[in-house]
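Whether sequence alone determines local backbone shape is best considered at the level of individual chains. Part of our work consisted of pairing the sequence of a single chain with a tokenised description of its backbone. This step matters because it turns folding into a mapping between discrete strings. For completeness, the protein is quoted in full, as a sequence line and a line of structure tokens:

_____
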Amino acid sequence: TNATSSSHKPAKGQIFLQSSGISSRTIESASSLPEGQPRSRFSLAGRSSILDARVDAARRDLADIRLATRVFAPHYALSVPRTAGRSTPVLAQAGVLESVRSEVLAGEPFDALEFSGNHIWGVSPVDGSVGFVDADVFTAFWAPTHIVAVRNAKVRALPSLDSNSVGELAMGSCVAALRSGESAFEVDGGYIDADALLPLDDLSLDIAAAAERLVGAPARPGGRSGAGLDTAGLVFLSLQLAGIEAPRFLDLQSTEMGMNLAETAPFVRGQILFFQNDAAVVVDAQNAVNVDATGVGRAPIAALIAAHGPIVRRRQP
């Protein structure tokens, strides 16, 4: 079956994004082959490689066709791009909120591999997470132009700053936006202040500045937006707004991201500190931003070491 646009009404104060009809650049999904390119036959060379279920879309019964050279599966699927009308968790098990891995944010694409009842199984081309999402959240694919770069951006009824708020979008959400005067952009559902958005084709916010903008956001398992984050989500979103690609999960960030610095290197703004089960973004020689049980906050690096143990890795994206 094919996914259809949802008729679900958002809760008061939330925005359900749909295509505004604004022409914009296309986010190219990794799912499709260039037009006219012949499909090649896939063959495995030796044993199947070890897969990570969090980021490799492969099950015993079905796999993403992009993994065909790495793993054998009874069936392979070509992905179908969809767009999230509002934020929704990515779950390891369909309908089990306790199995949350990540989330798809409002306005982001999602590569659907299987449509089953109320759920879609697939992979996020934004953070690479694999899992089940609520089918009702998704609409036909449309291409965003901008990303929300403040913790919570008000969506106003009119372009003026004194206009009534009709909802809000969390940092990390994406929109198709059209400039409306000097101070606002028109988006689906209303208007957003111009200084709250960054163009997706020119992400250059300072890593530490992005982290500092999230101070006060609540902690949330699997979260990676201004509405709530886990530790890896803080690192991912801070780097995303700086235009830097990074893994979604903490262990992968610690081992695969950027340059590993010497233990004796000075603390410099924008570095990422990794502890045994935590991480923090350095804002100056003594302080960093991290996520604790109460949410995102600024803390002395010495206090983080006392609470979480020694720094395992120090990386410069």
Summary: Helices lie at 207-213, 231-240, 250-256, 301-308. Confidence is low (pLDDT under 50) at residues 1-9, 20-34. The first strand starts at residue 63 and ends at 64. Residues 219 and 293 are 6 Å apart (CA to CA).
